[in-house]
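Reading group handout, session on sequence-to-structure problems. Before we discuss, look at one worked example. The prompt was deliberately terse, the way you'd type it at a terminal:

> structure Carbonate dehydratase

The input record follows.
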Amino acid sequence: MIRKNPSGDLPQIHESAFVDPTAIICGKVIIHENVFIGPYAVIRADELNATGDMDPIVIGAHSNIQDGVVIHSKSGAAVLIGEHTSIAHRSIVHGPCEVGSRAFIGFNSVLFNCKIGEGCVVRHNSVVDGLDLPAGFYVPSTTHIHPDTDLETIPKVTASATEFSEDVVRTNNELVAGYKRLQNEF
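And the output record:
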């Protein structure tokens, strides 16, 4: 469902993107080319800041927002998802937040008030809250990153983790083309 927010902002969705009919895209959302938005995803930009404005939620080209993902923002803060990035099933990305290009965010992970650098991998059931991760970090499953976390204890992304991330993006880009063809059958 594509709908306006109370301020009257309507999502801007590139014609090459695929948005599953069960997904909810609301308000000041910008979805770039060849993006996959999976079933039951919710991307909602509707809260205002103290001056009555809001920044958009932007999904970069060739990225995928998988089943059940929730992307929202507190008080109109920006949420930026880079290009060729995967946000996996049931993750929560809550602004203010920025996820760099070619990143992978694993199942059930939560991101809030942080920047995830380019090429980072945050594995399943992890939390990154209040601390920025520079490019190329690998957060193991079930890890909690917070302002007191010593980044020297966090490993760097391996070649196999990068290959996995790239394969997920490639697979979801193929799904965009397949689902777009199916849309024309109805």
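Points for discussion. First: The helical segments are 159-183. Second: The radius of gyration is 16 Å.
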